[in-house]
Design brief:
Blueprint: H1 4-20, E1 30-33, E2 36-39, H2 40-46, E3 51-58, E4 61-68, H3 88-100, H4 127-131, H5 155-159, H6 177-190
């Protein structure tokens, strides 16, 4: 049996349980908040949070998923959460499908593929570099999110603040900038938003 199997079994159980009984699997999670120990539903109620994006970690392995603990009716296919590491695989697959079809090459420079929002100082950066998360182009940390009801920036607007600052040292953690640029390449190629792609 693979060492990954127990972890995947646990994750599958939680996901299935979440679909049928959104609040139950998370009621036992406890957090320190303002000097008190509080369970997840109470914490969400006190912060007026309807939905939550969760991540499980098991040693060096982790997996993220989305759930609601307040009301099963609030979470829908249109609920927006900040993109996380889980979005990387489908983005990579979509980019590599374009490579397979000959629509782009791994060693193509990215600036012509980004449309009207080229990467500042990014003339030598290639699609391969982005897939390998090599360039330092954005913050190591994802944006904090946006206020409810606020207009969401487009990928081009997010990427406008990026600047190529060199190659990321191997020991340094990853950053989200390469993912944004890969997603923007997909949007430019297909001429529609990433959600529609």
């Amino acid at each position: 049996m693979s060492p990954l199997t127990p972890f995947l079994t646990l994750l599958l159980f939680i996901l299935v349980s979440t679909c049928g009984r959104a609040q139950t699997p998370f009621a036992n999670f406890r957090f320190e908040h303002n000097g008190k120990t509080i369970d997840l539903p109470a914490l969400m109620a006190s912060t007026q949070t309807q939905d939550v994006s969760m991540a499980l970690t098991n040693g060096t392995l982790d997996s993220a998923f989305v759930a609601t603990t307040q009301s099963a009716s609030t979470l829908s296919v249109t609920t927006l959460f900040p993109a996380g590491a889980g979005s990387g695989l489908p983005v990579c697959i979509a980019v590599l499908q374009l490579v397979e079809r000959g629509a782009l090459r791994l060693d193509d420079p990215i600036n012509p593929l980004l449309g009207p929002t080229p990467l500042s100082r990014g003339d030598g950066v290639t699609v391969r570099d982005l897939l390998l998360l090599k360039p330092q182009v954005g913050s190591r940390y994802k944006p904090d999110g946006f206020a409810a009801g606020a207009a969401l920036p487009s990928l081009a607007e997010v990427a406008r603040g990026f600047r190529f600052r060199g190659i990321r040292p191997a020991a340094k953690g990853t950053e989200y900038g390469s993912w944004v640029l890969l997603q923007l390449i997909l949007e430019q190629h297909y001429g529609k938003p990433l959600n529609d792609i």
